[in-house]
Design a protein that fits this description.
heterotrimer, A mainly alpha (113), B alpha/beta (352), C alpha/beta (338), B: alpha/beta, Glutathione S-transferase Yfyf (Class Pi), Chain A, domain 2, Rossmann fold, 2 domains, four-stranded parallel beta sheet, C: 338 residues, alpha/beta, FAD/NAD(P)-binding domain, 28% helix
């Protein structure tokens, strides 16, 4: 029945539906991601983020909260310039994280097929 | 179901007058659940022997208009001052509001007058000029559910049908929904405060049922005045109820008990809408969850006829709940007035 | 020889007592409970180096044994009277005469039941950091289900930095306590997922920041910036929390087996009593008012009455020891003027 309005989906992150596969894969090869402080230094200096809505700080958060649906689109925005690596106060190798997400997505896609 | 252990702290004990009430009705309830108010008066007079004055001269408190930004604060204060003047003229000192939004307004305004006596003087002048009336501020302001809560044990003594599943002997699981304006604005004006409000829980427990504690217990039903009044915003309104239903679903509640006229309407109506829109229902085994006002619930346990309580006005069928308790009802009388006139029946596509 | 009465036999009281005894004063400690050590007695390990709390206790015991300090246990001060430069302190039927009095009454953990939304003493398996220390001591972490928790959240700033309970101050040591407890718990239960919900993380002292990094790097503790707003019970009696992951800008919900509340330091109860007994000023926060924030922390508004430890402000053990010694120096300076 059409009521002239419809329902909206909840915006909240449901941690119990966490898809941790990609995170575990990335951490296995790049454990430095564990110590990210979310300071945003990477995003401030990011070449791609200056021109697009790409936010590399949020990328690691998406991974940690299991928000994996948009990862493919997100990592495609990265120019792999590596400036994020230079500024990180805790030595997180974000460029490698991006590469690993790419690998993980292929890996799990192949697995599903 | 294990219930949380909660004891009402000293800060959240509320004083509720014992007798001699001036009654102010609710706009929404008079239209959507008129049986509730009739039942309240009947329970108070017949079962509890209280003096309550149901005054035909009082008006809306204009709370809906106030919360929708169409009635200015000075106007609503003057309207409420007029209600108080009617109470004063009729020789009453204890004011009882049948709506949590009205109750919230009466508290908000009397608190404003406490802190800004000049505002009170201004309103006295406005009322005098407009109507020639004068008023006293009530000694006690209560919500109607406070009164039922206060006498819950007296009602329990006269109880015919406890809130128990007849077949299993287990207490029925009942979700309580307090409504935002009852205690969220002034937590000390609600029994038990805003987090673990006791007013409905107390009734449920006194009458043999069990309350359900679920994550979105304190979430708004979604009425929100402006959200509902504008059709384009109703999706926002229904989605709030949906969030609540999704959260209570795993607990398999037998019924929802509401405190607020708007919440009673929306938790009832939105279940129907969601069912029609998406085919989703939130009760056990793909059923809807019956919704009751506290007066209806009191009437049911006291053995009043379900159709005298006006349960046929609900969009969610209340009969499965009556069956669980074993309350008898006459299907043929459901959509008829006392004189046998048909009041019309709507058969939804999916709900029933 | 001067007589000194110290109220409170915790770390601050004992260290002040010993330092003053060392410089030739006759010292009496009046302690409410049956033992010295105060809150230390409940704690298992200490930040930032995981030293056993019992080692500090041993230090206090050995130190106090070296001096002829009168230890009046299970006693509280009933009355205090000033007579010129001297104080009469009454406890039970005993009267002490003192040339200087030291208030070292410490703190209480904030009463977490006041934050009803967090469910302490309402829901099972919601505990405070103090309760968790009891569990560390017992080596038993089983929840009321008789199993070890699979997921635990630690909530920072409970009763601190919270206008709703009239505590505007930061209790300072809870942040690092949470990090320490998270690591400790992960050592006991390596399979358990542990989350810390914080508003700010204040790793103010030496080694604290490194401890925080260790928690992330080696113990996989997840730090989520957001305040837990509500706790409830799932149908299977686990806990469910609501919060915002503020860095993602989205609300978040999570099921848990155990919730640990980092209750702040509260001094209102004891400080109200002692401030009335000795007519010394308190701050709005409940902490005793120092003569000068920078150079006179232990000196109070009443002549001959001094303070040491957490009754003045939140302090770690290290700071309490330093503060106690510093107050002792100030007291000795004062005694020379008599």
């Amino acid at each position: 029945m059409d009521f002239g309005f419809s329902t909206l989906e909840a915006r909240s992150i449901d941690f119990d539906k966490f898809d941790g596969r990609i995170l575990r894969y990335v951490l296995q090869y790049e454990p430095s991601l564990l110590v990210c402080l979310s300071c945003g230094g990477c995003t401030a200096t990011c070449s791609a983020g200056n021109l697009t809505d790409f936010n590399i700080r949020r990328l690691q958060l998406m991974l940690r909260r299991g928000e994996v649906e948009n990862l493919q689109t997100e990592i495609n925005k990265c120019m792999l310039c590596g400036k994020c690596l230079l500024v990180c106060p805790r030595g997180v190798n974000l460029r490698n994280v991006v590469m690993l997400i790419k690998k993980a997505l292929v890996h799990f896609k192949n697995q599903e097929n | 179901m294990k219930e949380p252990i909660y004891t009402v702290s000293r800060d959240y004990r509320k004083e509720i007058a014992d007798d001699k009430y001036y009654y102010a009705r609710s706009c929404i309830r008079q239209n959507f659940f008129p049986g509730s108010e009739v039942t309240f008066l009947r329970v108070l007079k017949e079962n509890l022997g209280r003096d309550i004055w149901d005054d035909p001269h009082h008006t809306t408190c204009t709370g809906i208009g106030y919360h929708s930004d169409v009635v200015p604060f000075n106007t609503i204060q003057t309207v409420i001052a007029r209600q108080f003047s009617l109470m004063t003229e009729n020789g009453y000192e204890n004011f009882v509001a049948s709506c949590v939004t009205s109750f919230g307004m009466y508290i908000e305004i009397t608190e404003t007058w406490k802190h800004h006596p000049e505002q009170l003087e201004q309103i006295r002048e406005y009322l005098k000029k407009a109507t020639g009336r004068e008023f006293m501020i009530p000694k006690n302001i209560a919500h109607t559910s406070d009164i039922v809560y206060k006498f819950r044990m007296r009602i329990a003594e006269q109880m015919k049908y406890p809130l128990v599943n007849r077949r299993t002997g287990q207490p029925l699981k009942i979700v309580d929904h307090i409504g935002c304006h009852y205690a969220k604005m002034f937590p000390d004006k609600g029994e038990g405060g805003a987090e673990f409000t006791q007013v409905l829980q107390g009734m449920i427990k006194a009458w043999g049922g069990a309350t359900v504690d679920y994550p979105e217990r304190r979430h708004c039903c979604g009425f929100g005045f402006r959200q509902y009044l504008v059709q384009a915003n109703r999706g926002y309104s229904v989605s709030n109820s949906k969030k609540k239903f999704e959260s209570m679903q795993p607990y398999e509640p037998d019924a929802i008990l509401t405190n607020c006229p708007g919440c009673a309407m929306f938790l009832d109506r939105w279940q129907f809408v969601i069912s029609e829109m998406h085919g989703i229902r939130y009760g056990k085994d793909n059923t809807t969850i019956p919704v009751f006002t506290y007066e209806e619930m009191a009437g049911l346990v006291l053995g009043y006829d379900p159709w005298d309580l006006g349960l046929q006005m609900h969009q969610v069928d209340p009969r499965p709940f009556l069956d669980k308790i074993g309350i008898p009802y006459d299907n043929d009388r459901m959509y008829k007035t006392k004189t046998g006139k048909n009041i019309g029946e709507y058969i939804p596509q999916q709900t029933r | 020889m001067n007589n000194i009465v110290i109220i409170g036999g915790g770390i601050a009281g004992v260290e002040t007592a010993c330092t003053l005894a060392e410089s030739g004063n006759r010292v009496t400690i009046i302690e409410r409970t049956g033992d010295i050590g105060g809150k230390l007695n409940r704690w298992y390990c200490l930040f930032p180096d995981f030293k056993k709390a019992d080692e500090i206790k041993k230090y206090l015991k050995e130190r106090i044994a070296k001096f002829d300090i009168e230890l009046k246990l299970n006693s509280e001060v009933d009355k205090a009277e000033r007579n010129g430069d001297q104080w009469y302190i009454y406890t039970g039927n005993v009267r002490y005469t003192a040339d200087a009095v030291v208030i070292a009454t410490g703190y209480e953990l904030f009463d977490a039941t006041r934050k009803e939304e967090l469910g302490y003493k309402i829901y099972d398996n919601v505990i405070t950091q103090g309760d968790l220390e009891d569990k560390f001591r017992a080596g038993d972490f089983k929840t009321t289900f008789g199993e070890n928790p699979k997921r635990v959240a630690i909530v920072h700033c409970v009763g601190s930095r919270d206008e709703k309970c009239h505590n505007l101050y930061c209790s300072k040591v809870c942040c690092v306590t949470g990090v320490k407890q998270a690591i400790e718990l992960s050592k006991f239960l390596p399979e358990t997922q542990i989350f810390c919900y914080y508003m700010d993380l204040r790793m103010y002292d030496k080694h604290f920041e490194e401890l925080y990094r260790t928690a992330q790097e080696h113990h996989n503790i997840q730090f989520i910036r957001g305040r837990v707003s509500e706790v409830s019970q799932t149908p299977d009696h686990r806990l469910a929390i609501k919060t915002e992951d503020t860095l993602s800008g989205r609300p978040m919900k999570m099921k848990l087996d155990m919730l640990v509340l980092l209750a702040g330091m509260d001094t209102k109860k004891h400080n109200k009593k002692v401030s009335e007994l000795f007519d010394v000023e308190r701050e709005e926060s409940g902490f005793l008012k120092s003569k000068d924030f920078h150079i006179g922390a232990g000196i109070l508004s009443q002549k001959g009455v001094f303070a040491a430890g957490c009754c003045i402000s939140p302090m770690s053990i290290k700071e309490t020891i330093e503060n106690a010694r510093s107050s002792a120096v100030q007291i000795n300076q004062y005694l020379k003027t008599l």
